[in-house]
Design brief:
By secondary structure, this protein is mostly helical. It has one domain: Four Helix Bundle (Hemerythrin (Met), subunit A). Helix content is 82%, strand content 0%. It contains eight helices and no strands. Helix 3 runs antiparallel to helix 4 and helix 5 (95-118) runs parallel beside helix 8.
Length: 212
């Protein structure tokens, strides 16, 4: 009992921490500082881990709070969306991909609000939704790592593209990853967002029977 009492506030504390992370994360991503680019990667990894950790603690010890129900999804979106928007500003990914991902999450949030107002039980995230979330987090981590690697190479061996081309097959592989991996990772994330959004709609379509 004492252990549960000590832990009961930690899920909400971790959620608050995840909401604060973007404040430091955003400037670290947008700067050309090599050190801060690696700090951005570390901060996002910590933020993503707190998402797993607060959920694990809440499930294991059956800790449920109104704050957690509302703010946990908000904290997740703040962390992920801040990374996506930074990537758009840096010209790494295309805006339409991010728009699809953000629109899907707003739609799902709207469905949850409808369900709450009607007093119904909303269907939990499906396999598509969980795959979407995991893919987005992994994509962001990989892109952040590629940003840091590119800036590191550019600092120590400019021009960085030519340096990688002269680095044999390994250098060329890194160059191709830097050029093409962000696009395809985000493309896959956008497609999964669409699929999981449609899946969520059809699993909750009864909510719309008397509305449209």
């Amino acid at each position: 009992m004492k252990k549960i009492i000590k832990l009961e506030k930690w899920p909400n504390r971790l959620t608050l921490l995840r909401m604060v992370v973007p404040i430091a994360f955003i400037p670290c991503v947008l700067t050309n500082s090599i050190i801060l680019n690696y700090v951005a990667l570390f901060l996002f990894a910590i933020g993503a881990y707190t998402d797993y950790l607060d959920g694990y603690i809440a499930r294991k010890y059956k800790i449920v709070s109104d704050f957690g129900k509302i703010m946990d999804p908000v904290a997740d979106k703040l962390l992920v969306f801040s990374a996506f928007i930074c990537f758009v500003q840096l010209g790494i990914v295309q805006a339409w991909m991010v728009i699809i991902i953000i629109s899907r999450d707003f739609f799902v949030s709207g469905v949850r609000v409808m369900a709450a107002k009607k007093g119904g039980d909303i269907i939990e995230a499906s396999g598509w939704g969980k795959t979407k979330t995991l893919t987005q987090i992994l994509s962001i981590l990989i892109i952040l790592a590629l940003i840091a690697i590119q800036n590191t190479i550019e600092f120590y061996a400019s021009p960085w593209e030519q340096s990688l081309m002269n680095g044999g097959n390994a250098g060329k592989a890194i160059l191709y990853l830097i050029y093409y991996a962000p696009y395809w990772l985000m493309f896959i994330s956008a497609i999964l967002a669409l699929v999981s959004g449609f899946d969520y709609f059809f699993r909750n379509r009864k909510l719309f029977d008397n509305e449209v």
